[in-house]
Specification:
By secondary structure, the protein is α/β, with parallel strands linked by helices. The chain is built from 14 helices and eleven strands.
Length: about 350
């Protein structure tokens, strides 16, 4: 009887300690985009750190709404776009400043790090670091447009009837850069921005006869380039690379005046419970071999500067052709846009559309 009691006591003790370990297990609550936390990397991170990753998929609007509702609680790490942080932080204080001493910044592409630091600066402190990025620029059929290399070619009579782009704000911004202007530098001066947009409007109206169509459907654009109806278009890098895999004559080209780029980031919510785990995940995901696994799957570039050596050959080829380091350094990263400027842009686009 005594042996049974001792054995039972040992079993109960083991169960209690086992449950205690479960209760004490570390957890990282991650609020991110679908595809940004591949299961293979989640498993690898847990094996290396013992930290369980709880993933909630979201988008920019939902991230803001969730963190506003809790005043920055409920998640340890979020991944908003870099142009959706500063203005939100100024209004709602849902993030905390980034402690760059805890980030392995040496493995991050410097121009991207600097862009995100500047565009997320609130109270003199950055509130994010970069994770992944993508761009829009030119998709060109070199068989028919061998010398096309900047947005100004979208208005070039040489490509009469073989041009396509969207009637959206990125086109206005792109053409402004191609004119030698810096539209982002005029964001703080609505009158100067209005004048610049009117200049772009005049150029677009003058070049309207050269446009085959203003595309609204990505699949339709791809088909028009496959069939040689369109020789040059403004579109995303992924679209150009997809077409290149089918036809080597077609490819994405980073324009001379700079591709337009978005960056999704890592930002730590104001009331994160496990900040140390957040920094561990950031450094883990920006490790070159881990960043490459993400890029191979999703085809987005990351801010990990040495990830290229681990990429699949076809994926690495895309980046090497379109984005040598000089082209990356020349990317024009979208800063936060004041709402009043979008109204100006909308009216300009309406005028271009209505022009005969």
């Amino acid at each position: 009887m005594k042996k049974v009691c001792v054995t039972s006591l040992v079993i109960v003790t083991m169960i209690v300690f086992g449950l205690g370990n479960l209760w004490a297990a570390e957890e990282l609550a991650l609020l991110t985009w679908k595809g940004y936390a591949p299961q293979s990397l989640v498993d690898k991170f847990q094996q290396e750190t013992g930290i369980t990753v709880k993933v909630t998929f979201s988008n920019n609007e939902e991230m803001i709404a969730k963190l506003r509702a809790t005043r920055g609680a409920g998640f340890d790490l979020a991944q908003p776009s870099q142009d959706r942080i500063a203005s939100v932080q100024e209004k709602y204080q849902i993030y905390q400043p980034m402690d760059l001493s805890k980030v392995e910044t040496g493995q991050i592409i410097e121009p991207m790090l600097e862009a995100v630091k500047q565009n997320t600066m609130v109270g003199g402190q950055p509130h994010a670091v970069p994770f992944c990025w993508g761009t829009s620029g030119l998709v060109v059929n070199r068989k028919f447009a061998p010398s096309a290399g900047d947005y100004s070619d979208l208005l070039n009579a040489f490509y009469n009837g073989r041009v396509s782009y969207r009637l959206k704000r990125p086109t206005l911004i792109a053409l402004a850069f191609a004119m030698g202007e810096n539209p982002f530098a005029k964001y703080s001066d609505a009158m100067a921005y209005q004048a610049l947009m009117e200049k772009v409007e005049q150029a677009m109206v003058a070049g309207k006869p050269f446009v085959k169509n203003y595309w609204t459907n990505g699949d339709a654009l791809l088909q028009s380039m496959r069939s040689d109806e369109v020789y040059i278009a403004m579109a995303w890098d992924g679209a150009g690379w997809k077409l290149h895999a089918e036809n080597p004559n077609i490819d994405f080209v980073a324009p001379r005046s700079g591709a337009l780029g978005w960056i999704d980031t890592f930002a730590i919510p104001a009331k994160a419970k496990n900040v140390d785990a957040a920094y561990k995940w950031i450094n883990f995901m920006l490790k070159p071999e881990n960043a490459a696994l993400f890029t191979n799957a999703e085809k987005y570039g990351t801010a990990s500067k040495d990830a290229g050596q681990y990429l699949d050959a076809d994926v690495r080829g895309n980046f090497e052709r379109s984005f040598p380091m000089s082209a990356i350094a020349n990317i024009k990263w979208y800063p936060p846009v004041p709402a009043k400027l979008e109204e100006i842009e909308g009216k300009i686009l309406d005028k271009v559309k209505a022009a005969q």
